[in-house]
Design goal:
By secondary structure, the chain is an alpha/beta fold. The protein folds into 4 domains: 2-228, 3-Layer(aba) Sandwich (Rossmann fold); 233-397, Rossmann fold, CATH 3.40.50; 420-592, Thiamin diphosphate (ThDP)-binding fold, Pyr/PP domains (Rossmann fold), CATH 3.40.50; 594-673, Alpha-Beta Plaits, CATH 3.30.70. Helices cover 36% and strands 15% of the residues. The strands form 7 sheets. The protein has a 6-stranded parallel beta sheet with strand order 4-2-5-6-8-7, sandwiched between helices. A 5-stranded mixed beta sheet has the order 11-13-12-14-15, sandwiched between helices. Strands 16-17-18-20-19 form a 5-stranded parallel beta sheet, sandwiched between helices. The longest helix has 24 residues, at 202-225. It starts with a strand and ends in a 12-residue tail after the last strand. The protein binds iron/sulfur cluster (SF4) (2 copies). The site of one iron/sulfur cluster has 13 residues, from helix 21.
Length: 673
């Protein structure tokens, strides 16, 4: 064993490997991606023997592959971000009915905020919809323990189990004791044993439904009584109900031993106030309790008696624990992010048990109804709830914090300097001119094409929707041109059915495949078009053109998006074509090539017209209003920031005065893999 500083996602990879996982498959998506990459790195370094790890073409493919291996008895791990589970949901809904043989863990990372997602979807809801148990860690350490417990739980009940961390759990770093090497658990000798139960006929679904209800009841009880699982439901009392120091020392890592359940002093008044929290909010709530206890002690006063419960196993809801927790309480405050899952459960529990406690939370506006929680806000709300407002300064931020925040520049998301997508968008806009058009975007870096000055994206819905939505626009507004943008990874993940639909139904759209040879937005992962797998095997890249042709697209053009004339010409031909047409804009992402020599601006020639800025908006170009030159007079001049510019030379083609001295792009755009 070695003590290592690891990010949550890295630690979860170690946990799965130590649990003997045999197959790891997922599709990249922030904040989940590092787990699969860590497994691949450990495998490549020889520290994870016998493991198969892959980026699958999409989440559905990943989960179905994992299911196949689990039917053989292998321990399997599927990973995705919250919206990725939507793609895999068709498989998940049936998989739970069929059941699994090998431990099947679904690592689904939620994104409160959202920081890098299209929705604030809550996987705890999906778990109850799919009737799959879910574990909800409050800290990376607890997530580590949950990953291991989830495999055992899955095998005990033949059910998939979801582990659902949120961004702060995935990306926080701390020290872990991890095994130096891990060995995948052997698939049982009997392997896959054919049985009618693996075939989900209606009769099997009927029987399976009953089995699910039965096992959910048993799992709910396990969450209260099984020593491994019950440790994820931390319960303790504090304030006047207990030694305040105990509350102050409440286990902030939320991985308290089961015997930390109750610390009530027999002589102290029974608490009437309850605090329920889940996920990272449980860690904030425990830190807030500790902080208020410290302040109360300094002020020589007591916090009122309260009882705290971290619900680390939100589904199936551990009702026995809820009853134990709620006994004697008059009010309960719920801290959670995303949906009001625990709040709903406590309300339901109150109704079911005819209890008279009041539940406060998102519905009552006593906690945030969207976005992330944080410690400062939790302290304020908790102090108010406990009736100790005097313990909190009404200023949320100290002067130092405010000063610090004022130094952080507000930077809207923007395409990187030298990003080839900039040229693709610019070419389409130039080709369209004043022609009315709807520009349908998709999920990926290229969603940023919506920003000024390009303003080349009108819609973005979900993975693969650009191509299909364009067809809807074509039907409803046939007088306009419809252009769909899709990245190379998204093309393989979710784009193909849309292309087939356009061909089959004869929709007049232009599909722009922005091929930058990687899955750029999530950290440059490979995909079927890159010619290499996550485990390093070389494959013949699947040709996007060949796929388009196979699906029946006959009008296909190619262009280097950093060559404006070539790109505009290709775009014009494709847009003019009546019927489905495609342009493949191919140029590698700047993250996977070495930067070239930066461009420069000739101060003698620059007129200060700003066209290089207002046309393409590359962050590598700035404007110095105080600069003076023969042609610019007092208008100021543009300048190139050599620390950002990679010499793509797009701007040199935009400047009407040839004032930009070309940089030197990388001679060969060889992708660094
Ligand atoms: S050459 Fe121009 S467009 Fe390209 S990265 Fe440099 S400043 Fe930006
Ligand atoms: S570099 Fe060219 S486009 Fe940019 S401000 Fe100067 S003259 Fe205008």
């Amino acid at each position: 064993m070695t003590k290592q500083l690891l990010m949550g996602n890295q630690a979860f990879a170690h946990a799965a490997l130590e649990a003997g996982v045999r197959v790891v498959a997922g599709y990249p998506g922030t904040p989940s991606s590092e787990l699969v990459e860590t497994v691949a790195q450990l495998h490549a370094s020889g520290s994870a023997e016998g493991v198969h790890v892959e980026w699958s073409t999409n989440e559905k493919a990943a989960l179905e592959l994992a299911a196949g291996a689990a039917y053989c008895g292998a321990r399997v791990l599927f990973t995705c971000k919250q919206v990725g589970l939507n793609v895999a949901s068709d498989a998940l809904m049936s998989l739970n009915y069929v059941g699994v043989k090998g431990g099947t863990v679904l690592f689904v990372a939620d994104d409160p905020g959202p920081i890098s997602s299209q929705t604030e979807q809550d996987t705890r809801r999906f778990a109850s919809f799919a009737k799959v148990p879910v574990l909800d860690p409050a800290t990376p350490e607890q997530g580590f323990a949950m990953m291991q417990a989830a495999f055992d739980l899955s095998e005990r009940y033949h059910t998939p189990v979801i582990v659902r961390p949120t961004t702060r759990i995935c990306h926080a770093s701390t020290f872990f004791e991890v095994a130096d090497t891990a060995q995948a658990r052997k698939v049982p000798d009997e392997g896959f044993v054919p049985d009618p139960k693996w075939i989900i006929f209606p009769r099997r679904a009927y029987v399976g439904h009953g089995e699910i209800i039965q096992r959910l009841g048993e799992i709910s009880r396990d969450f209260a009584s099984d020593s491994v699982l019950a440790q994820f439901n931390v319960m303790f009392e504090g304030g006047a109900a207990a030694d305040t120091d105990v509350a102050a020392d409440a286990p902030a890592d939320a991985a308290a031993p089961a015997d930390a359940a109750t610390h009530a002093d027999a002589a102290a008044p029974a608490p009437q106030l309850g605090i329920v929290a889940g996920g990272i909010s449980a860690a904030y709530a425990q830190d807030a309790i500790a902080e208020l206890a410290r302040r109360a002690k300094a002020a020589n006063m007591d916090l009122p008696a309260f009882r705290f419960w971290q619900v680390g196993t939100p589904y199936p809801f551990p009702e026995e624990l809820a009853t134990e927790f709620a006994t004697g309480l008059k009010r309960i405050l719920v801290f959670e992010e995303l949906d009001s899952v625990l709040e709903d459960e406590m309300l339901r529990h109150a109704g079911k048990t005819h209890a008279s406690y009041e539940v406060l939370g998102k519905y009552t506006h006593d906690t945030r109804d969207s976005g992330e929680n944080d410690l400062d806000d939790t302290i304020l709300r908790l102090a108010h709830y406990l009736g100790v407002d005097a313990l909190v300064d009404c200023q949320c931020m100290s002067k130092d914090q405010e000063d610090l925040m004022s130094l952080v520049p507000v930077r809207p998301p923007v395409l990187c300097a030298g990003c080839p997508h900039r040229g693709s968008f610019y070419a389409i806009k130039r080709a369209l001119g004043k022609t009315p058009a709807v520009l349908c975007g998709d999920i990926g870096c290229y969603t940023l094409g919506n920003a000024a000055p390009l303003e080349a994206i009108d819609t973005c819905l979900c993975m693969g929707a650009g191509i299909t939505m364009a067809q809807g626009f074509a039907v409803a507004e046939p007088d306009k041109k419809q252009v769909a943008f899709v990245g190379d990874s998204t093309f393989f993940a979710s784009g193909l059915p849309g292309v087939a639909n356009a061909v089959y139904n004869g929709h007049d759209i232009t599909i722009c495949v922005l091929d930058n040879s990687t899955t750029a937005m999530t950290g440059s992962q490979p995909h079927p078009g890159t010619g290499v797998t996550l485990m390093g095997s070389k494959r013949e890249p699947i040709s996007i053109e060949a796929v388009l042709r196979a699906l029946g697209v006959t009008c296909i053009h190619h262009a280097d998006p950093l060559d404006i004339d070539e790109s505009v010409a290709a775009a014009q031909k494709a847009i003019e074509f009546a019927g489905p047409a495609a342009i493949i804009f191919k140029s590698p992402c700047i993250q996977i090539i070495k930067p070239g020599v930066p461009a420069d601006i000739d101060t003698e020639t620059c007129t200060g017209c700003k066209k290089c800025i207002t046309e393409i908006g590359c962050p590598g170009i700035g404007f110095d209003a105080s600069a003076r030159g023969a042609k610019s007079k007092d208008r100021g001049q543009a300048f190139v920031d050599p620390t950002l510019c990679n010499g793509c030379n797009l701007c040199t083609q935009v400047c009407p005065f040839d004032a930009i001295v070309p940089g030197m792009p990388l001679e060969s755009k060889e992708v660094a893999r």
